[in-house]
Design goal:
The chain has about 800 residues and is an alpha+beta fold. About 40% of the residues lie in helices and about 20% in strands. The strands form 6 sheets. It has a 6-stranded antiparallel beta sheet. α2 packs across α12 and α13 packs parallel to α14. The relative contact order is 0.10.
Length: about 800
């Protein structure tokens, strides 16, 4: 069985590069100074400047490693706790009960709506109770049951019940959200569904008006007094039915001048005020004498809009249930003043607006405020002055827009992640060009030196630091899921064994490493180097989490997960298939539930200020997702943390008739012949590639851009191989190759780019091309050129 039913963490694009940023800046500065000195004819000083910059980068990198501090991680807890975490992912109310209906687990949406009551106890009448019991019986007998129109204290709901659990002894209750309706039609149905009769019993005339001012629906007294038969085809303008006398009073035209005077109360559907809303006509006693606001409480409570009345001294007189819910009030207590609902910074503005509307001319307006219960989400508070309603002087309208705010946050987060990913990919691309030039020049200089020369070790050190910087670009691309992976078919136990000796040194003497391998693990297709980085990152985080406890155990386990076991999980994220899984478990401090859902976000860290970048788990997430896998986390405070990675089992295609992969060419076998057209807009990369290809026997023609390359091809030059950058100003590589293939359909193409191969292949409309990722060495360029030339 799978080790616990893990709660999926929401997909977000994530990374780990900021700890390399100081060293990257230092290396870039050194490279820039070196290039400037080369341009002014000071090659020796240029080399010294480059070495100093790279040395500073190395020192800063080592310093950043030493100041890394604990990040809390994740271990499996009880199964019910895991199921509860999974239920929290649903915006719908959901609960898990025993076969008799006893409540075991419920998510936040359920508790906010029904409290701690069992699903069988939420009904508001006997018929609904019987319907719920019948749905439970159907689910227990047939595996599923449902019922609609169940009356509860919070309104009518739909209920779906499913039988589940390992032994089928549990019931999962779901309460699907009703599909959003047009607010005008929804309010019209509300008025026709009994609310209109209750208003009529209180002597209130009610009508629903759309944005064009036409009456969509009305209760009986309104239709009778206005002498109009309302319907879908007969929608008179509300203004044509009423003679408004000013100050919010008016008479129905059908009753003439002798008709009753009504107080006109307009309740808009939203704070934007597009004209649509509910209009209430309350008959004024004694020809317009003030009406006691006490009798309006019943009216307010049946309205679905958050309304409250405030007296001339700025104190609350009354408020309806919708207002309490929108304001986030708990229990039966209510604040004294409207300013008590908002944060300290907004109190003065609310109090001043209420005072002006209470004592001055009757006006209305919207005010953006932040509630005490939700200080991070501004809401619109409509404040309108009232006259002729007794002690009530101000009407407050508050809309519950928590769901709307949640959607806005999700959209903003997705947009932010996309922009950061694009930035990371762009920085990596430009930095790869610089590294290609540095590594290439190092290779060319090493061809003129042998071990023991005075400069040999220095050049090797420059190349070594450049390769470390190339690792930084891979992290940036992993963050944006744009790295070029080199996937291989491999076994997870082999990868763990390769990295185990490194982990023992990383963990130190106080921590114990335990490795367990399951049986019958299927092969996976992934980049072994990137998988090792994932394991190391998780192990380092686990080490930091256990450091505060003075010791602990890190357990790395591999196991097989069959499709039927995945189906039992019931995850909406994990597709049903066969997986090979890798779990990393520690006995550290654990991660608080409030932050568990954020651990894969970039720049989020639980470490102290200045001791963590929040990019380690982001990189892990990016690598796993780009490899086609899934990663989940679980944690319990004080007990530890557990990460589980699921990689799909790779199904080998038939290899009959396929030639075996040839061994890697030796250096003396990389010699080639023929004419190469090299197209690269970066002069430093073009110079290195030209010298490298020339040294290996090729005749090289260079071009700065796609247009110049097409001019060379138009001269009927004998070109055997076209090597081109992908992203160039003006005409890019794929477009240039498309034009070239029209006249030379058999021309062999080798693309080179700092962007990911997978990303480019998805966007390229060119067949039979090879790809070389930047940064590359002289030998890698020669190998790619010979391999492309030899391809059929």
């Amino acid at each position: 069985m799978i080790h616990g039913q893990l709660s999926p963490i929401g997909s977000r694009s994530l990374v780990g590069w900021a700890r390399w940023l100081p060293s990257a800046i230092a290396a870039a500065v050194g490279a820039t100074v070196a290039i400037l000195l080369l341009l002014v004819g000071r090659p020796v000083l240029a080399l010294v400047g480059l070495v100093i910059g790279l040395g500073a980068a190395a020192v800063l990198r080592l310093h950043s490693e030493r100041v890394a501090a604990p990040l809390q991680s994740v271990v499996s807890g009880p199964d019910f706790a895991l199921v509860g975490a999974a239920l929290e992912l649903s915006v719908q109310a959901a609960a898990l009960t025993s076969s008799e209906g006893s409540l075991l687990i419920a998510n936040t949406a359920y508790r906010e709506r029904f409290g701690a009551n069992s699903p069988l106890a939420i009904a508001a009448d006997d018929s609904s109770t019987a319907a719920l019991a019948n749905a439970r019986s159907l689910a227990w007998r047939d595996g599923a049951g449902c019922v609609a129109g169940v009356e509860t204290a919070t309104g009518k709901v739909q209920v779906e019940v499913e039988r589940g659990g390992n032994g089928g002894e549990l019931l999962l209750w779901r309460f699907p959200l009703a599909a959003p309706q047009d607010p005008v039609r929804e309010r019209a149905n509300w008025l026709a569904g009994g609310a209109g009769e209750r208003l009529a019993a209180a002597g209130v005339l009610a009508a629903v008006v759309d944005s064009s001012g036409r009456v969509v629906a009305a209760n009986g007294p309104f239709a009778g007094q206005a002498a109009v038969d309302f319907g879908d085809t007969n929608r008179p303008l509300f203004a044509d039915l009423l003679n408004v006398s000013g100050n919010g009073f008016g008479r129905l035209k059908a009753q003439g001048e002798a008709g009753a005077i009504y107080r006109i109360i307009e309740i808009p559907f939203d704070a934007g005020g597009n004209g649509a809303g509910t209009v209430l006509l309350v008959e004024e006693a004694n020809g317009g004498a003030p009406v006691d606001s006490g009798h309006l409480q019943a009216l307010l409570d049946v309205l679905p809009v958050g309304l409250a009345l405030v007296d001339r001294d700025g104190r609350f007189l009354t408020m309806n249930h919708a207002f309490r819910q929108a304001a986030g009030m708990k229990g039966g207590s209510a604040p004294t003043y409207p300013g008590d609902l908002v944060v300290k910074e907004d109190k003065a503005a609310v109090a001043d607006t209420v005072r002006r509307n209470a004592r001055g001319p009757a006006m209305s307006g919207d005010l953006a405020v932040r509630l005490v219960g939700r200080p991070s989400e501004p809401v619109a508070l409509t404040i309108a002055g009232l006259r002729g309603l007794g002690d009530a002087a101000v009407l407050l309208l508050l809309k519950d827009n928590s769901e709307e705010a949640k959607l806005k946050r999700q959209v903003a987060q997705a947009t932010k992640m996309q922009m950061v990913g694009q930035l990371a990919g762009g920085v990596a691309h430009d930095f790869n060009n610089i590294l290609t030039a540095i590594i290439g020049h190092c290779d060319l200089m090493l061809m003129r030196h042998t071990p023991g020369d005075s400069d040999y070790d220095d050049i090797q050190q420059i190349k070594s630091n450049s390769n470390r910087a190339a690792g930084l670009t891979r992290q940036l691309l992993a963050f944006s899921r744009q790295q070029t992976l080199r996937p291989q078919v491999l076994q997870l136990p082999d990868v763990v064994s390769e990295v185990s000796h490194l982990l023992k040194r990383l963990l130190g003497e106080t921590l114990e490493l335990v490795v367990k391998h399951g049986r019958n693990l299927g092969p996976v297709r992934a980049d072994p180097g990137q998988l090792e980085q994932v394991i190391v990152n998780l192990a380092v985080n686990a080490r930091d989490a256990m450091a505060d406890k003075g010791g602990g155990t890190l357990t790395i386990q591999t196991f097989s997960v069959k499709a039927d076991q995945v189906a039992e999980l019931g995850s909406d994220i994990l597709p049903i298939a066969d997986y090979s899984a890798l779990s990393v478990t520690d006995t550290g401090t654990g991660i608080a539930p409030s932050v568990l859902g954020k651990i894969f976000e970039p720049f989020f860290t639980t470490k102290e200020v200045g001791k963590g970048t929040g990019l380690g788990l982001s990189t892990v997430y990016g690598i796993v997702k780009q490899s086609g896998g899934f990663i989940f986390a679980d944690s319990k405070i004080g007990e530890g943390t557990r990460f589980v990675i699921y990689l799909p089992v790779h199904r080998e295609e038939s290899t009959a008739g396929k030639p075996r992969k040839s061994a890697k060419e030796k250096a003396d076998e990389l010699w080639g012949s023929g004419t190469v057209l090299l197209v690269e807009d970066e002069p430093m990369v073009r110079a290195v590639a030209e010298r490298a290809l020339t040294r290996h026997g090729y005749q090289v023609i260079t071009a700065d851009n796609g247009e110049e390359a097409l001019e060379v091809l138009a001269r009927n030059e004998p070109i055997d191989l076209l090597i081109s950058d992908v992203v160039m100003p003006g005409m890019d590589g794929p477009t240039m190759v498309g034009h070239a293939r029209k006249t030379r359909p058999t021309l062999k193409i080798l693309f080179m780019s700092g962007y990911a191969e997978e990303q480019l292949r998805n966007s390229l409309d060119v067949d039979n091309v090879s790809f070389l990722p930047k940064p590359f060495s002289v030998q890698e360029l020669a190998e790619a050129a010979k391999r492309t030339m030899a391809a059929k």
